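Dear support,

I submitted the protein below through the web form. The confirmation email said the job was done, but the results page showed an empty box. After a refresh the structure appeared. I'm attaching both so you can tell me whether what I see now is the final result or a partial one.
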Amino acid sequence: MNVGFIITKSEVGGAQAWVKNVSGFCENSRRFLISSEHGWLNSFFADERSLTLPSMGKLFFLRDLFRLKKFIRQHNIGLLVASSAHAGVMARLVKLLTPVQVYYVSHGWSFNYNGGLLRFAFRKIEQWLAALTDKIICISGADYQIAQETLKIEQDKLLLIPNKVFQPQASGLEPPLDRRPNSPNLLYLARLEAPKRPDLLNLLNHFSVQIDVIGQGSLATQILPASNIRLCGEVKNFGNFSAYDGLVLLSDSEGLPMSAIEAAACGLPLFLSDVGGCSELVRYQNGMVTPNDAMALQENFSYFLNKLPYFSKQAQHASKYFDLNADRDIWQTLFKNPA
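What the results page shows now:
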């Protein structure tokens, strides 16, 4: 069966890395990419197997919805795997127009942090869309709990498959290290857009550490100039985790953040915001989570630095629990035999 992976943006990001990794398990099927733009993720798919739908996520998208229907029929796509909120809407609406199975993968329920005053309405829309979905796959226990308790999604539609990765390798494109002598060298790796909180790094600029910020986005301007924080920009296919002593990731919402999983797979201790499924990533005593308020964040960061040798030892032992190869059979079965 041919499988289409649909996601709003094709730029470097956690959900995009998930698509890149998991789509490799379509061993006996042709795989296709549908996104709103041509970007980083397209480099892993043949051009003739890619479709760009510029209106995905916009109000007027009916024309592109019919283009998607045509693409599905033209390439005999039997399964759509949607990995973002807007892509999930389009995938499930096209199911009304043509026979296709749809999996929706939750990388953090967007109505939880984007809803605002409309949160209740967005939740109702998600419940309605769930009725059009064959499987809803949660990559964190926190997302699974929301699906069960808040969205009241039928149990037989839900799957919990915690996010994992293939161990990253250095790409050779990483910036040269500017190590701070006798101080931990930490990494902040993320697309600098909401719900990430790079502004909270300003609360850490008086600690004796070096923090390299790898990533770009509109929130980069919120990071104030500081001698111990270096803005390195985007690095495609970043994999040089072994050059660092730990990972810091501060956010308002997460499923299971890809950069934290990659760091954990490489044996790095983690310092994460206590949101979404982040606490699941440090259950092996390989790091800690923190509230985002200023006092708690600074106190917990100080504790993290003091305990860094212990966390590092535990992180080395825990790295095997984040290996995607352990889930190969699960994904191959899901792609061969959709619900």
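Response: this is the final, complete result; the empty box was a page-load delay. The chain has two domains: 2-164+324-336, 185-322.
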